[in-house]
Amino acid sequence: MKNPPPRTHPGLLVASGAAVFVLAGLFVLPQFAATTYVKGDAADEEKKELQEEIENIRKKEGRLETPQPLKGIYMSQCVVGSPAFRDSLVKFIDDTDLNAVVIDVKDFSGTIGFQTEDPRFSGASMQSCGARDLKAFLKTLHDKGIYTIARITVFQDPEYSSAHPDEAVQSASTGRPWEDHKGLNFVDVSSEPFWDYIVTLSKETYALGFDELNFDYIRYPSDGPMKDAVYKNPNKAEALEKFFAYLHAELKPTGAILSADLFGMTASNTDDLGIGQVLERALPYFDYIMPMVYPSHYPDGFNGFSDPNLYPYEIVHFAMERAAARTVATQSSVRTLHSTSIMRTETVPATATTGTTTREVATGLYSKEKYDANKIRPWLQDFDYGKNYLPADILAQIQATNDAGLTSWIFWDPANKYDSVRAVMAK
User: Fold this and answer.
1) What is the Cα–Cα distance from 146 to 139, expressed in whole angstroms?
2) Among 33, 138, 184, 323, which one has the highest count of C-beta atoms within 10 angstroms of its own C-beta?
3) Contacts of 38-44 spanning 24+ positions with Cβ under 8 A
4) 167 exposed, middle or buried (CB, 10 Å; 0-12, 13-18, 19+)?
């Protein structure tokens, strides 16, 4: 069986400027102001009306409400096309406190795991794995009260890059599509025809009956000959936020719940990690942000831990506490497409020709909307990478999430075995 590999790699952390400070033991936490959030009546009333309209659409279509708390696992494209295997996972969910499943629709290969109706997807649909009975399977899950999330990988897409090489990230040395260490291609984040491709696929996916759409690989490349990569817009964070805004504008009117997978270190770093991902730039456009806080993927020395893999509680708690603080804050050091500078009044001393005056000067902070901390829903680790992940490690990660004030989580195991989660969740 062909399963996707772990989705992040420590190599990114060495490459990013912020991570250099981490490895040097100089990690410094950003400060967040504890200010009171004052709602704007007109804007909030408009948001409330839109949300009520979306909820009515979802109820009419028989969508499930997002569980609170949500406790889920991931199911790969190949497993969803293997009835015996997928049924064993459904039974696992049914027999425990689990209540949600993330199912691959478009995976790391760029292929699509169901028979699509749109001819533009004909070259990618059902090329390796998938389920021709996906719509019926989703109904089975709904009948059991299991919340369904469709995972759609985005910019890592060898299939699309092969068909549209001019839209891929380019290699400066070869003039052909750039490849990462695994030989995989990325579509350029600023390729607007591809944005439409993703939105069209997302709408067809949602029409199958999924409750939520989850977007992964929404980033620039991280592993490979990075100096050889050529991008249409080198302002990565801004370019990626424009894609987020497009995705939100096109998909929220359908009633779909939207979630985004971010690298774990976006919870504590305020730079873009060299891949364009910044927490504050994603928060306005998704219902849930899902940092991949796998302890095995943090670099040695992170936050003073010689081997973060040995400290699953501490790593997850640190990351989730920081992400929650940034989510509820109304001021941030991060500038986004929507943020405005926060000004302070400064007194200008009198001179021989003028009296004392005042002027407004920027504080270096920007305003942001306050969001519920439980907008943060982490991906947790149940796969062996650098060490065996045992039931105690599963419990530690769950406890860390709860202790950070959060309630929901989803476990990732590329092999879909979940041996340690099973041991913990078994009644």
Assistant:
1) 10
2) 323
3) none
4) buried
38-58 pLDDT, tens digit per residue, is 345 666 777 777 777 777 788
Single-letter amino acid, residue 306: S
Residue 52's pLDDT is what? 79
Going along the chain from its start, the domains and CATH numbers come out as 64-329+371-425 (3.20.20.80), 338-369 (no CATH)
Residues 6+ apart with CB under 8 A from 49: none
- Kind and range of the H or E element at 350? none
- Token pair 């290969």 in the structure block, residue: 109
- Residue 381 has, within 13 A of its CA and on its CB side, a CA count of 33
Phi, psi of 364 (to 5 degrees): 90, 0
Q: Where are the beta strands (DSSP E) in 287-406?
A: 288-292, 331-332, 341-348, 357-367, 379-381
Q: Are the CB atoms for 412 and 380 separated by under 8 Å?
A: yes
Q: CA nearest 104: which of 144, 160, 149? A: 149
Q: Residue 297: CB partners within 8 Å, gap ≥ 6?
A: 6, 8, 9, 10, 13, 264, 385
Q: Quick check: 148 and 209 in contact, CB under 8 A?
A: yes
Give the Cα separation of 294 and 309 in Å (integer): 8
| pTM (two decimals) | 0.87
